[in-house]
Amino acid sequence: MTQLVLSVQSHVAAGCVGNRAAVFTLERLGRTVAAVHTLQFSNHLGHGLAAGTVFPPAEVRAVLEGALDHLGAGRVDALLTGYLGAAENAEAVVAAAVRIRAANPAAFWVCDPVMGDLGRLYVGEALVGTFRELAAGAADVLTPNAFELELLSGGPVDGPEAALAAARGLLGRRTRLVVVTSLPGPGPGEISNLAVAREGAWMLTTPLLPFAPPPSGSGDVFAALLCDRLLRGTPVPEALGGIGNALYAVLEATLAAEAREVDLVGAQELLVAAPQRFSVRKVG
C-alpha cells in the first residue's frame, strides 16, 4: 500500500500552484494524496483577475474531518499544508494533526506557513498570530521563506547568520526541522535554501534564474518534495541536496518553456531524476 499524504491548501482550475502543484508532485513520486481545498479560484491571483470562492472555515473543517473519518486517521502518513487563508483553518489543521498522530505516531506534519513574501502580507493579522502562537509549534517541519521566518521569529532576517539563529529558535519539542527557502545567496545572483535541525544545519546555493517575474508554485513544489523525502527517511542534508537540484532543474525547464507557473508536466521526469549539480555545505 502506498503512503498517504493529506494535503490542505488552495486550488486553482488553471495553473500549477497550491494543491495543483503539490498533488501532481507527490503522485508523480508514487504517493497517494487526499486533497482538501481552502479556496477554489479560476487562476492564481498573480495573473490579475480571478473568479472563485474562498471556502468558509466551517466548510474546510467539515471536509477535513470528513476525509479523516473516511480514510481513517491512522492511514495518513503525512499532513502537508500550504495556503490556509484564515486563522480558523489553521486551528482545524492543528486539531487534524493531533488526531492523525494519535492514530499513527509515525505520521508528521509539514507546514508551509504561507503568509507573504518580500515584505508583503497575503493574509490577515489573525492568521499570522495563529501561526506564530499555535501552528508553528505544533508542526513537525516548517518551510518558511525569509519574510515568513521574520514573522514567526519576531526579528529581522538580514543574512545567513540571522536566518540560522531564527530557524534554530523555532525548533522545539515537536518541531524538529525548519527549512528556510529563497534566502539571498552569499554572492550576487545566487539564492539559497537553509535546513536547520537539532543535529546540525546545511545550506544549498544555486544561481538565481533570470525570471521576470518569478513563476508561481515553486514553494508548493518544494514543500511537496520535502514531504516525499521525509517519508523515504532521507537524511536532512541529502534531502536538501536532492530537492534543491530537482527544483532548480524544473525551474530551468520552466524558464526555457517561458511558462508563468512551474512547468511540472513538461519537466516531470526531473522530479524523479534530476542532475545533481549543486552541493550542500554544512553551516552549523
Description:
This protein is α/β, with parallel strands linked by helices and 284 residues long. Helices cover 40% and strands 22% of the residues. The chain has helices at residues 19-28, 57-71, 87-103, 125-138, 146-153, 160-170, 218-231, 236-256, 268-272; strands at residues 4-12, 32-41, 52-54, 78-81, 108-111, 116-117, 120-121, 141-142, 177-184, 190-197, 200-207, 280-282. The strands form two sheets. A ten-stranded mixed sheet has the order 3-2-1-4-5-8-9-10-11-12, sandwiched between helices. A two-stranded antiparallel sheet has the order 6-7. Helix 3 (87-103) runs parallel beside helix 4 and helix 7 (218-231) runs antiparallel to helix 8. The longest helix is centred in the last third of the chain and has 21 residues, at 236-256. The termini are far apart. The mean pLDDT is 95.
